[in-house]
Amino acid sequence: MRAHGIATATLAALVTLAVPGCSAASDGARPAATAPGSGAATATRAAPTPTPTPTRSYPLSTAPLTVPSVREHEAARGPGWKPAPDARVVVAPADAKALTDEARLLAGELRLGFAESADSRPGDVQLALGADDSGKPESYTLAVKDGKVKISGPDEAGVFYGTRTLKQAVATGGSAPEGTVRDAPARPQRGLNLDIARKNFTPDWIEARLREMGDLKLNQLGLHFSDDQAFRIQSDTHPEIVSTPHLTKADVRRITALAASRHITVVPEIDSPGHLGAVLRAHPDLQLRDAQGKAVKGAVDISNPASAKLIDELLREYQPLFPGGAWHLGADEYQALVVRDPQASFPQLAKAARARYGAGARVQDLATGWLNDRADVVRPTGKALKAWNDGFFRGGVTQAAKDIQVEYWTGKEIGARPPLEYLREGRKVVNLNDEYLYYVLGQPNRFTYPTGRRIYEEWTPLVLRGTTAVPARYGDQVLGARLAVWADLAGAQTQAQVADGIRLPLAALSQKVWDDRPPQATWAQFKALADRL
């Protein structure tokens, strides 16, 4: 309390000094007349003492208002920073190759100049790369001091996220507060999964989502572009399978270039050996048939070498088109494995399994072998490999490769495996919990549209299935999460309705994967902020 009293007294003194003529005679009364004949009447009047200019006192700053919120803000006293007509975004020559794109983007957004310069001046925003070991990947420091801003980080992504914080701070408060932000994501994978196979989403719409994701510090866009309904990307090796409308390769290159500028990895998915109906319409000879000769929807016959040949040709064709560091192999809902007795229903698959893996092998082993073979095609590119959780099976004589990340979405399939089984095996898991994170158009099969509030108030990355979290000791194995848009009933919503419907869920997800501690703001406060942004 003594320190508070001293500070209050000092502030009061400064205020007194700041008010002109604040003295005993400063109430507007005329000074008393000097008596005639007194010596004082002829004395030289002393020159008035100049009133000192006080030093302005600022309250302690508060953290900038952003989505997601910053993890740490060191408060300080000062005016903060706001854009000014002559301010610039500057990058030192040594960092220009790495950071010019980020600098020019921010300069355009805040209507600032741009300069490549080793020096900054008052009003400038400086972007800089620190040493590789100067922080966690994607971390950054944003310091506001002496009328300048400096954003630094160990990598380009971190510096970019610092520019997003500055942009949002200006949008919500008009300025960036004095002090230092130190920030980093809790999870390395944060994003959106988009089903463009069953519903055609235009390139402009996808690009708008990428810009939105970049501002939310999300870094993955999954593109599910092959399914029973359609195959949505131009193919040169198999043009016969491509649907109309579709993305051209030029469209995809623009999308991946924009994504890269926002530090977003586009993760392509050719789902197999199920969900291949569009491919099978052009190649009916590859269709899986049961013991009675009945065709199985969307499923290729994995005992037929021609099935693998076609899918591998597509995998090799598209690898250069998607330069990002991850690839999704699918593997979910293979219809041969959703019946009670796959061996009896599909004797050709059972026979092929025994031929490859021995007398004790089952159809699930053949499906696991298919997944591993497709992984072998992609693995030389160095991309991280992903597959849906219902493509991994317990028991069996063969196992899915250990480097394939488990994309956990459901626990409702026959032989469902709870998340703990994967975690106990040491596998890395990504959260796409269908209870909270599945936006299924038309809400079939008892799906309901996710809400931002439920995600914000109830869900965490450790809630992989249903509403129960896995033990915190497995936290490092849960790599992150994506909100997933599935177009089961494609006409149920327009593109604009989808964009509006996922806006708050995506914002809430961004908060919970960036900082998985309980949020400090209420949902009402968070929603109001997200609406402003």
From TrEMBL:
InterPro entries xref list: Beta_hexosaminidase_sua/sub, GH, GH20_Enzymes, Glyco_hydro_20_cat, Hex-like_dom2, HEX_bac_N
Keywords: Glycosidase, Hydrolase, Signal
Name assigned to this protein: Beta-N-acetylglucosaminidase
Keyword Repressor annotated: no
Active-site residues annotated for this sequence: 333
CDD domains recorded: GH20_DspB_LnbB-like
Domain called Beta-hexosaminidase bacterial type N-terminal: residue spans: 66-184
Signal sequence, start to end: 1-24
A Pfam cross-reference name: Glyco_hydro_20
Coiled-coil residues: none
